[in-house]
Amino acid sequence: MSFTLAIVGRPNVGKSTLFNRLVGKKLALVDDRPGVTRDRREGDARLGDLAFTIVDTAGLEEADAGSLEGRMRAQTEAAIADADALLFMIDARIGLTPTDRAFASFVRKSGKPTILVANKSEGRGGEAGAIEAYALGLGTPVPLSAEHGEGLSDLYDAICEAL
Ligand code: GDP
Ligand code: MG
Q1: Which ligand sits closest to the CA of 11?
Q2: Helices 68-82 and 98-110: crossing angle, nearest 10°?
Q3: Domains, the chain
Q4: Residues facing residue 75 across a β-bridge
Q5: Which of 10, 70, 102, 142 is the residue whose CA sits 20 to 30 A from 115?
Q6: 73-112: per-residue pLDDT in tens?
Q7: Is 43 one of the annotated binding-site residues?
Q8: What is the ipTM of this complex?
């Protein structure tokens, strides 16, 4: 089975880090500064016995180049429209922000199967954000550490369930 999964969420939650981990190459630019993912990037991802196309989105990073709302919609809508399922990512250390909530309502309205991922969940400090994430109405958050490669088997299960 072949399918396309788009990673969406506000800047700096770790979307490109997960993209790189699943593709196994440094195709997406990872940076501390919001604003580095300029394009939608696609790669061939592998996770266990799953092989799929993964799309890394820019989120709001280009917002200052035009209307914030407009940029968000254009970027996110295009990625969502082309995807079979979405991976909606939040930062478990920071918890929910207004931007997360705006993204979440947009994602919910799309009606696409969505996996909620609470990234940066390694060590201590991730629990609060993961608990908050339940309030998004996107199901049970999958705790993940894209950077350390933790939680990938739970992500695998969540993808299988979503499809
Ligand atoms: P994006 O803007 O959503 O694409 O986020 P990036 O992938 O560029 O990552 C933003 C920052 O978060 C970088 O400094 C990453 O190293 C860091 N980061 C990504 N994943 C994790 C993680 O699992 N744990 C921690 N602690 N930091 C992470
Ligand atoms: Mg990025």
Answers
A1: 1
A2: 40
A3: 4-162 (3.40.50.300)
A4: none
A5: 70
A6: 677 778 889 999 999 999 999 999 998 998 898 899 999 9
A7: no
A8: 0.99
